[in-house]
Amino acid sequence: MSLLSTSPVAAHAFAVATRCASALAAGLLSSYAYSQSMNPVVVTATRTETTIDRALADVTVIDAQTIRDAGASSLPELLRSAGGIEISQTGGAGSVSGLFVRGARNSQSIVLVDGIRIESPLSGGAVPEHLPLSAIERIEVVRGPASALYGSGAIGGVVQIFTRQADADGWWPFASVGFGTQGTQQLQVGFRAAREGTRVALSLARESTDGFESTRPGSPDYQADRDGNRQHSLTASLAHRFAAQWEAGASALVNDGHVDYDDAFSTPATARQDYRSAAVSAWLRGRPLDGWQTELRAGNSSIDYSYRAFTFAPRTDSRTMAWQNTIDAWGGKLLFGLESLVQSIDGDGVTRGGAFLYARDRRGTDSVFGGYEHGWGEHTLRATLRRDRIESVGSETTGALAWGWRFMPQWLLRASYGTAFRAPTFDDLYNPFSPNPTLRPEKSRGYELALERHAGNAMLRATAFGSRIDEAIELDAFYTARNLAHARVRGLTLEARQVFGAWMLRASATVQHTEGLSVDPLTGTRTEADLARRAPRYGVVGVEHHQGPWRFGADAIAQARRFDTLGQRMDGYAFVDAWAAYRLTRDWELFARAGNLGDRDYETVAGYRSPPRSLFVGVRYAAR
Questions:
Q1: Does a structural domain hold residue 286?
Q2: Of 182, 502, 119, which Cα lies nearest the Cα of 316?
Q3: Is the model more confident about 355 or about 238?
């Protein structure tokens, strides 16, 4: 069975995406005048502030305007449209979702909210379906191994979410309301305010949808009903500068709601999950001396949920304390810090209330990390190292080395190599039904070679990447976590962005080869197979137009054929999302978005339909 096989529609769409990327690349080679720079400051790639062209990493920034305009209705769908990420989704908004960054599965990449890790200690995943788009101001996506900076789980990459913050003096209220197909409703109100060194932001949002029938007839989970979602969220932040070089602050994101699902062990009346997620952090940062910046951050994230059909109500906590320092030293920058993470689980069906309980309910991780960056002439070299000691698992050391050569003002050649790991989760080791306490941590080695061109609003990037994950943990046919002999991912991503007057074109196309090798411990039989839910080709082509009071755009997204956990074939697909906005006055705007315009019927999880065609319209107000 060929990894390159796909449906004719997806193959054609992917070919179009590749041709568009090539055409944009050709346009980038010509001289052109640009009115503004697309070189934002990022922090996730290095844990310190740096511009994106100096990060020496594969970084994508999704800004506030893109998030507001996007045709996507959920965080996983938005991330897929940014390129370099595949998703799985068992239905619409609120349904169980996963992120696959460079072929790594959901629990092999980490998600941060305002610098705090948010994940379920049970599965190791961030549960991205429970993070509402209305709460998010900005997203940074870093692809590639990052355990040398962030520890366990950062094999595929890191996604960091930033909530709303005040950034200008004055009082700035905002609000939006909208309605759409499938009974969708959204309402958001809030404000930002800043005065004399104090900054405050607050936002409240409510979202609901009646949903659609997510499972297919014939599926063992099929129920003839619609699977809706209701959620309420609050985001808040407070910061105060109490001296010229010192500032303290806090932020919070809280989201709760319930989602309907289809299940073979329940009825339409009882197939409902209630959930609540939260990320709260406080920080103090300043400059004790010239050339020395220090930051102390403490936070807690929780992911809690329960089911109406049966007794299983996990309550999870991940408490973080981190101290980080950056010092100008020896002509470069020295980074060092300490971090502590304590994860715990509790609740009915987990630690109490039944005969089948988890064997362990708490685990702590203590870490030390450091790095050094030095530049000479057109060259930059960065090295990072981290040591993690994890209770019941052991200690792991990871490192990374990155080099960049700016051989022309707009051109950068860079290369990097890094090691990463992922500790087995509570579900992997201790779940009461199919535990595997003999699991060993996953360990990976990854490389990246890239050629980039940045010129104002224009960008061209070609990135070759590869990783080998030894002792890779995947579920077998009985949903028991097993160590494979190894898993490999090799691929190439082409990205381009070009502005032509009021038009902006962008494209991203990835070709990859994924495979896993397992060895039966009893018979010694060796089995090679594609990694589940990962396609040999996927990509996105986008267009935007900004002129006068009008803004509009569209994204065409395609993914080739791939296979699910039990070998079920999922055909390739291609679909289009679109959006538009019209400014009525300086502060008022009408907007609309349409998802899956062609009403394409496709799957990202076998047996589950993805969202059908949808339309959403609304009005928003933002003081300017």
A1: yes
A2: 119
A3: 238
d(CA 251, CA 38): 27
Kindly state whether residue 1 falls inside one of the protein's structural domains.
Answer: no
Please compute Rg for the chain using Cα positions: 24
- pTM listed for this prediction: 0.91
Residue 592 contacts residue 617 (beta carbons within 8 Å):
yes
| pLDDT tens track for 5-29 | 444 444 444 454 444 444 444 443 3
CB 227 within 8 A of CB 261: yes
Residue among 175, 205, 206 at smallest CA distance from 191? 175
Token pair of 284 as six digits: 């103090």
Cα 343 to the chain's mean position, in Å? 21
Domain of 36, in residue numbers: 8-622
> What separation in angstroms does the CA of 56 have from each of 44, 90, 139, 499?
12, 35, 18, 24
- In percent, the amount of the chain with pLDDT more than 70 equals 93
Closest CA to 139 of 205, 22, 36, 60: 60
Considering its fold, how many domains does the chain have in total? 1
Residue 3 falls inside a structural domain: no
21-25, long-range: CB < 8 A, 24+ apart: 21/494, 21/495, 21/496, 21/507, 21/508, 21/509, 21/539, 21/541, 22/494, 24/460, 24/496, 24/497, 24/498, 24/505, 24/506, 24/507, 25/460, 25/494, 25/496
**pLDDT of 321 over the 70 cut:** yes
Amino acid 516 reads G
Is residue 2 in a domain? no
Position 36 pLDDT exceeds 70:
no
Residue 461: which of 82, 157, 25, 108 has the closest Cα?
A: 25
CATH number at residue 462: 2.40.170.20
